[in-house]
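Allow me, if you will, to draw on your knowledge of protein folds for a short while. I have a record of one protein: its chain in single-letter code and its fold written as C-alpha cells. Kindly check, if you would, that the fold set down in the C-alpha cells agrees with what the sequence suggests. Thank you for your consideration; the sequence and its C-alpha cells are set out here:
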Amino acid sequence: MSSRPRTVTRALALWGAALLVSVSACSGEDSTPEAGDSPGPTASATPTPTPEPTPPPKPKVGSCHVLSWNDALAPTATVAGESCTKSTSLTFHVGTLKADQVDSTSAQEQIAKACPKKLRSYLGGTSEQRRLSVLTTVWFTPTIEEEEQGADWYRCDLVAPSNGKLLKVKRGMRDSIGTERAAKYELCAKGSIGSKTFTHVACAKKHSWKAISTVNLSGEKYPGRKAIAATLTQPCTDAATAVASNKRDVTWGQEGPTKAQWKAGQRYGYCWAPA
C-alpha cells in the first residue's frame, strides 16, 4: 500500500485548531471602562458542535464485483456490489480492523492472516484439495478518505486467477472444494515444465498438464532447487503412476517453489501428470 501523510495531516489539523483558539483568545483588546460607564451584560456565543462524519457503508457478504487483474492487486476497491452475471470476485467475509490506521503493519498482518483462514472455512475440503485449486483470496481496506469518515472494515474476496486474468466466480461456492461446483477451478497448466512457457491455468481453460498432488517441504531456510527436486521425485513418481493408464509408461512432472514463493509461505511442491 502506498505511504500516506497520515501523521502529518493529523498534526497539521491539531496545530490549526490550536492556532484558532489562540487567535480567538486574543481577538479582543483589554480596555478599562471610563468613569461613569457601567459595563453591561456581554453576550457569549455558544459554539456549534461539529457533527461526527457518517461512516461510509460497509461491504456486504455475498456481494459480487467485476474486477480486473490489476484491480485485485490494489489495496482498495469499490464497495458497492455489481451484477453477479459477469463477476470476477465474491465477497465472502467482512471483518473489523483492530488498528487505527488501515495501512499500518498491524492492520495488514491482521488481514493477511484473517482472509486465508476464513477462505479455508468458506471453501471447505482438505488442505490438499485447496492447494490443487486456483481459488484464492484477495483483500481490501477503506481508502484514506473513508477511514477518516469512520470506516474500519476489511473485505475478503474469492477470486480465481488463471494466466494473468480473473475467471468468473458466482455465489454458491461455500463448501465447494471437492465437488462438481469447483471442478473447473482445479489447477492445471500449459507449456513445458521447467521452461518459461509453463503457466498455471484453471482446468476450465486449455491445458496440457494437471496437478495431481502436493508434497510438503520442511525447514525454515530455502532448501535450494536441487534439494527440493530430490524431495519431490519419489512422491511425484508414485502419484503419477497411481493415475496412469499404463503403469509401465508413466510421464510426470514436478514443480517446487521459488525462493520468493518460499518466503511468501509456500512450503510445498506440485506433482503433475499429462492431461
Summary: The helical segments are 6-25, 69-73, 105-123, 127-131, 144-148, 225-243, 259-263.
